[in-house]
Amino acid sequence: MAKGAAVSSQTARATPLRKSANLDMVRLCCPDAGQATVISESFGLTVVDCDGIRDLHEKLIVEAADALTESLGERAMQFHLQRTVGAYVGSAHGAGQFYSRAVTEARDATAKAASDARDQDRDRNVGFDGAAQRKREFAADMAIQSHALLMAAEGAVTAYERVVGERWKPFERLAEKPGQSVDRKVAELQMAALG
């Protein structure tokens, strides 16, 4: 009997939520405007038009929402924009995480190249970049890309607030247990309630 009680109490626990990326998480992993500018100048890359990207994406989503106003109810519009903005934020978050990994690889390669014990990157042919340099350049490209996507996400979030009238937050759904049907979940919850 004690074993059955332990099983029911485990089933009765709240199912964890599957966390989605939010704008704060994106800002933590993507370079900000100042850092993006320094990277652009250091690597000879195009400086990102932060305001232009942000404003264009805000305008794009507001205009799309205006076009849908007659076809969608208020709640349907909110759901649609919530998903649309979530896609922008999710894309920027993925790019920011990829950028972070690229920076880590560039740091590791640069540290290895600087080691006195290694001569792998020394005496290379003139005109060819070393592996560490290629990784640094790749990380710089990823920095600019992730920053541009951050600006697009910020524009989308601002548009959501303009159209819906409230701050955007990511949709969080319950984490699914693979292989369980809705009927099975209902049965487990009912049995847990019965004790």
How much of the residues is beta strand, in percent? under 5%
Number of helices: 7
Give, in spatial order, the strands making up the sheet with the most strands.
Answer: 1-2
Distance between the termini: 11 Å
How many domains?
Answer: 1
- Average pLDDT, rounded to a whole number, is 82
Class based on secondary structure composition and strand pairing: mainly alpha
Q: What composes the largest sheet? A: 2 strands, antiparallel
Organism: Bosea lupini
Protein name: ArgG
What is the strand and helix layout of this fold?
Layout: H1 2-12, E1 17-18, H2 23-29, H3 33-43, H4 50-68, H5 74-114, H6 131-164, E2 173-174, H7 182-194
Antiparallel strand pairs: 1-2
Helix pairs in contact: 1-7, 2-5, 3-6, 4-6, 5-6
Question: Could you explain how this protein is built, in words?
Answer:
The protein is mostly helical and 195 residues long. It has one domain. It has helices at residues 2-12, 23-29, 33-43, 50-68, 74-114, 131-164, 182-194; strands spanning 17-18, 173-174. Strands 1-2 form a two-stranded antiparallel ribbon. α2 (23-29) runs parallel beside α5 and α4 (50-68) packs across α6. 23% of the residues are buried. This is ArgG.
